[in-house]
Amino acid sequence: MLRQLRARLILRGDPDFPVGLRDLPDPPRFLTVLGHLPLQGVAIVGSRTPSKEAEEFTFLLARSIREPVISGLATGIDTAAHRGALAGDNPTLAYVGNGIATVYPPQNAPLAARIVASGGGVASAEMSHDEVTDAALVRRDSFQAAHARAVLLVCSESNGGAMHTIRFARQLRRPTFALTAQDGPEFAGNREALCSGAVALPWNVKGALRVLHGKMSELNDATSL
Fold it and tell me: DSSP strand E in 101-149: where?
């Protein structure tokens, strides 16, 4: 089946199993992967129903970032992040909460194909034909946080799935970033993230990248000591 899908199976003990996922308390036993897994990167997450401004900001940020972009192939911010990365020729990786024989949501099937064709990947810890479940989506959120060097929240409701990724990032001691909160429920999660220690980013792509790349450089310097 994996051969028919042009996918591969990566076991937890394999050398190309993502290093960051080993930090999880219960790493997945395997990943099925279409395409390639970039090394680390920045996870960009957020609401499935963002404002047009937030979507446009996400696209421009992902297009300009100097890191592989990790997200979850959901509608809204995830879609904008993957599309922006593709537009900027940045590698992008989609962790999904369903088997890779199908695409969820179905309207993102062309996007998934573009990700793979452009040198990125789609990865899952589910069996090939498993349908999406809430539990699998939460596990997917943990994989995004673990694979990434940092997690960036564009906007989220307080009960949005992106908040799982932020929570996992804190548990894994991954740096978190959040756009400064605006009025409205789609930024309630940002307020929570910022109160919990996330680094604030301005609603200005150049300014946000300056802060993000500065912090990432600090991380590089710290790990080289």
Answer: 121-124
